[in-house]
Amino acid sequence: xxxxxxxxxxxxxxxxxxxxxxxxxxxxxxxxxxxxxxNVDYTDFAVAVGEKVANxxxxxxxxxxxxxxxxxxxxxKISGVRAATCHDEVTAEICRRHNDVxxxxxxxxxxxxxFTDDMIEIWLETRFDGGxxxxxxxxxxxxxxxxxxxxx
Length: 152
Description:
5 strands, about 45% helix, about 150 residues, alpha/beta
C-alpha cells in the first residue's frame, strides 16, 4: 500500500518513527514533511497528504500534530478525503470498517509508541465493511459534490 504521511513540528518525531514502521511493514511511504522540528502550520501538511490521497497518488494517509484534531479538520476540506482522529484501537478499527477512513490523524503528544503502533496496525489491516456503510459514504460524497443527498 502507498501511504502519504505528514506532520507539523509537534508530530515530527512520531512521523519519523512511523516512516520506519511503514517501511518495515513493506508499504511505500510518501513523506510530505515537515522535514525538521521547526514551527510550521499543520494545515500545509494536511492539504499535501489529503491531495495525494484524493487524486490517487497514495492509497491512504497519516497525519500527526499535537492532538490530530486540526489535521483532521483541514484534511476533511478536501473532496474524497475521509479523515478521522483516533484515540484508541476501537476508533481505529471502526473508522475503517464503517466510514472507510482514508486518512488517519494522530496525536504526537498523547500516546506511547506501542499504543500508537497498535492503532496504526489495526487501521492498516481493517477493511471497509461496505453494505449499508457504502450507501452512507455515497451520501457523504454527494454532500462534497454539493448535490442533493440521495434518498434511500
